[in-house]
Specification:
There is one protein chain. The chain has three domains: 61 residues, Nucleic acid-binding proteins (OB fold (Dihydrolipoamide Acetyltransferase, E2P)), CATH 2.40.50.140; 195 residues, Rossmann fold (3-Layer(aba) Sandwich), CATH 3.40.50.150; 80 residues, no CATH class. Helices cover 23% and strands 30% of the residues. The protein contains eight helices and 20 strands. The longest helix has 18 residues.
Length: 377
């Protein structure tokens, strides 16, 4: 396409959005661009009224464009924003949040707050790499082609040193690695136990279970949830999708909670949560393994419900189960803004108000971010 396009904004998938001439009435999605830039493009996938494209020439560069840290950026599909200065990445994510709120006519009672990551690189406690031809790498963007890597600046150095140390990659389809703040490594080829430590709270886990990715924001995230829960009656608290129990245990240790029950469908994670309860002697906690939509039916009341679901959000039958508990407060933490917004619409239609909304940049260099909402009756 010879006619230059101007990038209007960056949208939720990290693509720059541009519009063609009015007579063509077509929208173009172009990765690795910045709003305000003028670009020449090559069409990659043409649809009826929109197209995916790549920028073949940047005619006008944004002042926010920087040299990426990673030699694999734009080849490997792991990152979206390494070409953008970190301060401006935050502004883009604020814009993405506001787009969702405006489109769905959601207005929090207080203006949203956005918390950047203290470090935009070397933050990730986990990595899932593909293995091909005895080399590890990431999928190319929108592809199943494996791009072998010899650097990854969003990982801590000791994690990538571990990857480099594997001279003959084992015959596994992927390499699943997690680490902790003690630099221990657990992987599907190294079966170590991990222990994330916050003061004298120790939460054990391994590579098989979910754990938050950004080592620099775990404590601020937990403190945020603690602050949201503190003003409410804490006689009975229920946490759904509790994983290894880090939220429940942190609240049990730092708030006067009579009883907090965590529920998770992952048996391995729930078993870790039970062991973490015993090791930390936090006996005002209880953890249950089972399908959340079934286990929640065993409870008839909770003063506070905390939700930390997977990216796909909360099924409607679970949301209905939460309402039966009649909580005065619901704290919902999510790594996917689109499903958070969908579930917010459900809760606000049932007489809950989105009182506070805080976003934490758990995933620098990508378009993702963590959202924590407080809903009150």
């Amino acid at each position: 396409m010879n006619t230059p396009l101007t990038i209007e904004k960056i949208v939720h998938n990290g693509y720059g959005l541009a519009r063609g001439a009015r007579e063509h009435n077509k929208t173009y999605f172009i990765p690795y661009t910045i709003e305000g830039e003028s670009v020449k493009i090559k069409i990659i996938e043409d649809k009826h009224n929109f197209a995916y494209a790549e920028a073949v020439e940047i005619l006008k560069r944004s002042p926010h464009r920087i040299q990426p840290e990673c030699p694999h950026f734009q080849i490997c599909g792991g990152c979206d924003f390494q070409h953008i200065g970190y301060d401006h990445q935050i502004e883009i994510k604020k814009g993405i949040l506001q787009e969702f709120l405006k489109k769905e006519e959601i207005t929090p009672a207080e203006p949203p707050v956005f918390i950047p990551s203290p470090e935009p690189y070397h933050y990730r406690l986990n990595a899932r790499l593909q293995v091909w031809n005895k080399r590890a790498g990431y999928f190319q963007k929108n592809s199943k082609k494996v791009i072998p890597i010899d650097a990854c600046p969003i990982l801590p150095e000791h994690v990538f040193n571990f990857i480099r140390s594997i001279k003959d990659m084992p015959s596994v389809p992927e390499l699943n690695i997690k680490t902790d703040n003690n630099k221990t490594i657990s992987a599907n080829i190294r079966d170590n136990k991990l222990s994330y430590t916050i003061d004298d709270l120790k939460v054990e886990y391994d590579h098989r279970v979910f754990f938050q990715a950004n080592q620099f924001l775990i404590r601020p995230w937990l403190d945020l949830i603690r602050g949201l829960a503190e003003p409410f009656n804490k006689k009975r608290v229920v946490e759904l999708y509790c994983g290894t129990g880090i939220i429940s245990l942190y609240l049990a240790k730092n708030l006067s909670i009579k009883k907090i029950t965590g529920i998770d469908s992952d048996n391995t994670a729930a078993n870790y949560a039970k062991r973490n309860r015993e090791k930390n002697k936090l006996f005002n906690t209880n953890f249950v393994a089972g399908k959340v939509e079934r286990v929640i039916d065993n409870y008839d009341h909770a003063n506070i419900v905390i939700i930390d679901p997977p990216r796909k959000g909360v099924p409607e039958e679970v949301l209905a189960g939460i309402l039966k508990l009649k909580p005065e407060a619901i704290i919902y933490t999510s790594c996917e803004i689109s499903t958070f917004i969908r579930d917010t619409q459900y809760l606000t239609s049932k007489s809950y108000t989105l009182e506070k909304l805080t976003c934490l940049d758990m995933f620098p260099q990508t378009y993702h971010f963590e959202t924590v909402g407080l809903f009150v009756k």
